[in-house]
Amino acid sequence: MRIRLMDANGDMTFGSSLSNFTTNTPEGVAQLILTRLKLWVGEFFADTSDGMPWATDVLGNRTASTYNEAIRDRILSTEGVTEITKYSSTLVNRELTVNATVQTEYGSTTIAFGET
């Protein structure tokens, strides 16, 4: 699996030939997970059914019973992910923080994600 790397702002990197890519690494899968978590349902014009159900299942009132399952499902359905070995989330004052350790086809990786 070959993934184009992103910079600290989330923009794709260019200009360094093959150095702008990672191939078959846990870090590449972690980047895929994070970009999939950031995609809201309806945001991608080519497939409006793809994305995280942030507005309906995660953020808002009375979502405590649904948001962890939605996030875990999105992580587990990412290409290259084999299992979630550690998972925690906190929701404080409308700020959600997720930390997970994920086993991939290429090794283990850790992700940290926050959404307001």
Overview of the structural elements:
The strands form 2 sheets. This protein has a 3-stranded antiparallel beta sheet with strand order 3-4-5, with helices on one face. A two-stranded antiparallel sheet has the order 1-2. The mean pLDDT is 90. It is built from 3 helices and 5 strands. With 116 residues, it is of the alpha+beta class. β3 (81-92) and β4 form a beta hairpin. The radius of gyration is 15 Å and the shape is globular.
List keywords for this structure.
116 residues; alpha+beta; 3-stranded antiparallel sheet; two-stranded antiparallel ribbon; globular
Q: Strand sequence of the main sheet, in spatial order?
A: 3-4-5
Relative strand content: 25-35%
* Gyration radius, in Å: 15 Å
Number of helices: 3
The residue ranges in which pLDDT falls below 50 over 5 or more consecutive positions are: none
Distance between the termini: 31 Å
Overall pLDDT: 90
Shape: globular
Number of strands: 5
Q: N-to-C SSE series?
A: EEHHHEEE
| Category from helices, strands and their pairing | alpha+beta
The description of the largest β-sheet is: 3 strands, antiparallel
| Helical residue percent band | 10-25%
